[in-house]
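We both want to read discrete structure tokens more fluently, so let's practise on a single case. Would you write everything just below, so we can both look at the same thing?
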Amino acid sequence: MEAKIINDPIWGPIELHPLCIRIIDTPQFQRLRYIKQLGGISLVYPGACHCRFEHSIGTSYLARSLGLELQKNLAMLDEPNKPDITDKEILCLEVAGLCHDLGHGPFSHLFDQLFIPKFKKPGDQKAWEHEDATLNMLNSIFKNITWNDYLEDEDIEFIKNLIKKPDEKEQKNPSLNENPDEKEQKKPSLNEKTDEKEQKKHCLYEKTDEKEQKKHFLYEIIANGLNKIDVDKWDYFSRDCHMLGLHHNFQCKRSIKLARVVKHGKEWHISYPKSEYYNLFDMFYTRYTLYRQAYHHPVAKAVEMMITDAFVKANKCLLFPPNKQRYQTCYLKHLSKNTYDFFGRKLEVEICWDCIKNLARVF
């Protein structure tokens, strides 16, 4: 399979690696075509009908672009014990950017921020996050495609950590759910392969830990928990402003050209020169503008609350896989009159049949 070039309305021609093409062709990724990037905001801003599909491809492109720029600058850096970026790590960044939003549910953040909390049980300590579903779908994808001609087992673990870094306890002990006392009592026979699997897991975690210590800056490209400057935000800021019809002055390609890996104490981090101050200020101001004018628009919030109410009332009626007969008799019976009058048949068909049906394919 050869690389392909697609034309993106924001970034222009984008070349996709053959492994990325294989991932895009899976049902898990294709369902992103039906997941709206901005949830119910399209009912306020008619142009905001873009999906997670194109955002994921754009994030992959920016992750590769930033990785290549840092790779080039590190090669020219005259400093002992400097880190480097391999071509395989560039590919891992590209795949992680492509797959970072796989786990989003219908209407994106509406699903995990408004719908899921309504069904949270009192004993649940950890809230469900779309990153959790992303990792599960990623496992499913790599079980069904050929990837070992480009990557190895530790690279898959590295991609997962780029999307969501595990806790320190989870890194050090992959079998965290097991009771230590019970684990000591277990003595598998020599014929069992559990010991071999556990050793392989520990080996993978040790390799990813070592990479995190030496190349901590790689974890700041997709999801930067340090200062929130990452390629995920760069893409959706630019894409959302374009589709919403809002203007912005932030130029992420300039930031990519000026990004450098600098040593701070004992760790290496992505840094920017002082001349980039105003451009990064524009980035955060763009974020503020988007939240003020679009993400927290009062009418959009009211619409999303109505959609959430529809999901809650349809929760007991919609089955996986969908049962059309029960859907027709039970869903319409429980739907409130005001909600149904507002959305009409469009709500009945699009929300409860298409979106949730596509979500069900990978669970």
Summary: Strands lie at 4-8, 12-16, 260-264, 267-271.
